[in-house]
Design a protein that fits this description.
single chain, mainly alpha
Amino acid sequence: MSKLEKLIKKLLSRPLEARFEDIYTILKAYGYQEICSKIYTSKFN
């Protein structure tokens, strides 16, 4: 069983205990890309 398969099995069996790094690894393996965006806020006086 590959590392990716183990992560998926772990995620499916205990979803509340999933770590961000594990979910990130799974998504990257399936071709998802992280796109950073900046959020600008303005203060109204």
